[in-house]
What we know:
The chain is 33% helix and 25% strand. The protein is an alpha/beta fold. It has an eight-stranded mixed beta sheet with strand order 6-7-8-3-9-10-12-11, with helices on both faces. Strands 2-1-4-5 form a four-stranded antiparallel beta sheet. One of its GO terms (molecular function) is ATP binding.
Amino acid sequence: xxxxxxxxxxxxxxxxxxxxxxxxxxxxxxxxxxxxxxxxxxxxxxxxxxxxxxxxxxxxxxxxxxxxxxxxxxxxxxxxxxxxxxxxxxxxxxxxxxxxxxxxxxxxxxxxxxxxxxxxxxxxxxxxxxxxxxxxxxxxxxxxxxxxxxxxxxxxxxxxxxxxxxxxxxxxxxxxxxxxxxxxxxxxxxxxxxxxxxxxxxxxxxxxxxxxxxxxxxxxxxxxxxxxxxxxxxxxxxxxxxxxxxxxxxxxxxxxxxxxxxxxxxxxxxxxxxxxxxxxxxxxxxxxxxxxxxxxxxxxxxxxxxxxxxxxxxxxxxxxxxxxxxxxxxxx
Length: 332
Ligand code: SF4
Ligand code: MG
């Protein structure tokens, strides 16, 4: 499989300052040492409770947020380049390849302007100079999301939530990106139209050979969309696996707890419900050792002092960061 993103030890920390001289007193470790490869054409689901760093990870991968450490290697026609070192021109080219779709389609479209001008702007910015060419692209992307071209003359408030999100997707497609980073793209929509938008996204993905990073807290939505899933907890990856393996054989106690909270899965598998106890600790004062140890039903002595490494376990490509699966750690 061809890799499109190689993310290495990515770190996005936000300083916490105090007083008038803005003395740095700590950091919010939103993304903390994340390494991962993303394959071309796949949908990689990203799950975890709110505040676990999913959105910051997505934004950092496309440089909307500046990382404080690590590298983001992107495949430019077979050659990997570190986008964290890009100058303005290179960044401009990179931006064209990776686009984002946000949760709230209303805020993503300027309410004062007709859709037409929101759609024309990115094309102008990216140097599509003639009106004819611009309108051709606009017609093409609108067709992909099943919206009539004459709707361009309307304002955002004249559309339903589902239509607005389809418009946002269409606008992201205008520059012919290779990757779409979707941050909770359907969670603001009525459940009745979520499936419609998700199916449309699947069709578009096939048609354009797009890679999706699909961030969501709704696990049934992620399961429906993803080829692989990464589970985040307090800024770290705790488990990555093919979607099937993750749902059938979750390894990490956190993943198990997350999955057992899905009512539908409960009915099908009659799995014992495992309720997550306690709050997510603050990403400022992370616990020592395994970040999950204060909530983990399987916590051992070693977990309180030593952070677990990522190890392979089970099916190919299944990785987990937990001492239970690290033979060397358990022996020691
Ligand atoms: Fe639980 Fe220990 Fe595994 Fe962390 S490393 S998830 S505390 S068993
Ligand atoms: Mg978020």
